[in-house]
Amino acid sequence: MQNATYNHTESTATVSEHPPKRKVGTNLFLCPMPVTIVGTMNGTRPNYVSAGWVTRVNTTPPMLGVAIAKSRITPVSILDEQAFSVNYPNHDLLVETDYCGLVSATTKDKSLLFDSFYGELENVPMIANCPMNAECVLVEMIDLPTDYLFIGEIVAAYSSDEYFRNGVPDVRKVNPILLTMPDNSYWTLGEYAGKAWSLAQGYKGRA
Ligand SMILES: Cc1cc2nc3c(=O)[nH]c(=O)nc-3n(C[C@H](O)[C@H](O)[C@H](O)COP(=O)(O)O)c2cc1C
Hints:
The protein is mostly beta strands. The protein has a single domain, classed as Pnp Oxidase, Chain A (Roll), CATH 2.30.110. 10% of the residues lie in helices and 36% in strands. It has helices at residues 74-81, 94-102, 171-174; strands at 33-34, 36-42, 45-51, 54-58, 63-69, 83-88, 116-118, 125-127, 132-143, 147-158, 164-165, 168-169, 178-180, 185-187. Strands 3-2-6-9-10-5-4 form a 7-stranded antiparallel β-sheet. Strands 1-13-14 form a 3-stranded antiparallel β-sheet, with no helix packed on it. It is globular and about 60 Å long. The chain starts with 32 loop residues before the first strand and ends in a 20-residue tail after the last strand. The structure holds flavin mononucleotide. Flavin mononucleotide binds at residues 35, 47, 49-53, 67-69, 72-74, 98, 101, 103-106, 179.
């Protein structure tokens, strides 16, 4: 295995201060990932599929990107309806969430696992039991070798007062499910670490 070499002449750090780097393969995942459940209409029935490869992708208008493997039934549903939902489950729904990632709508009807509700888009089912939901219209699909990256504009988002503090979602109340790969493990949230866009004020770096 090839070792990396250090070449940052500006730095005061020396190589001996760092553990040796080695290549670890390219099948890298950013950990942890939030676990979501993507909702679509599969014909006349809601279908729900677990998805960890989800991220916010645009500021204005707000958009979400979801990578779904071409082998799933969900891409067919998204393209049929030109829309999908992203539901944010908590640990109360851990078993149902795992089930939605184990089982395909091609073999099992997943529509009755949850109480579904509909928002502005009448063809996009959302999960009432989840603390947060977003309904999205499809704006772009990027065709990658094994997956599609679906980019959806958030038309509306939903939650309940019980998950809010001072007007914003409180992540401790939401209690999201976190995922690590490739060890395929679920986690809970860790400790508060500081205020973002704030704690580095006054920091001078190494100069
Ligand atoms: C925790 C978890 C996260 C997953 N994330 C994704 C994902 O981001 N993209 C994907 O294509 N499949 C993902 N899967 C696998 C799909 O959820 C699974 O293949 C599902 O059965 C597909 O359902 P469908 O055929 O009804 O669309 C995940 C599975 C689990 C358990």
